[in-house]
# Entry
Amino acid sequence: MKKFTFPLARVLDWRATQARIEESKLEQLYAELRAIASSEAELKRQRAESERALLASNVASGSELSALDAFRRFTTAEHLRQEKQRADCSQRIAAQIQLVAAKRRDVRLLERMRDQRFQDWNHQFHRELDAQADEAYLAKWNKPAR
# Structure
C-alpha cells in the first residue's frame, strides 16, 4: 500500500498561512488600540499634573490661568479625537475578528477533510495488511509437506 498523501496539503498550508497573516493583523489592531489608550492616559495624567501644579502654587497669574484653560480645551478636543480613533479601531477589530474566524474555519475544514482521508486510508491499510496476513497464513497452511 502506498504512503498517505493529502492532495490538498498545499492548499491547507496556504490557508493556514493566510489565517496567521490575518491573526497578525488583528494583533496589530489590538496594539493600536492599546497605544490609543496609553496616549489617552498620558494626556489625562498631564492635565491632572498641570492642574495640581497650579493649585499647589496658590497664586496664579492671568497668563497661567489662560494657559491652563487653553490646555484644558486642547485636552478635551484631543480626548474627542482619541475617542473617534478608539471607535474606528474597535470597528476594524470587529471586522478583523470576523475575517480571522472565517480563515480559521477554512483551515479547520481542510484539517477535518485531511483527518477523514487519513482515517479512510488507515482503515484500508489495515484491511490490506490483514488480507496479506491471511494470504500468508493460507499459503503456509496449504503448503504441501515434504
User: Anything to note?
Assistant: The mean pLDDT is 91. The radius of gyration is 34 Å. Helices lie at 9-57, 62-141. The chain has two helices and no strands.
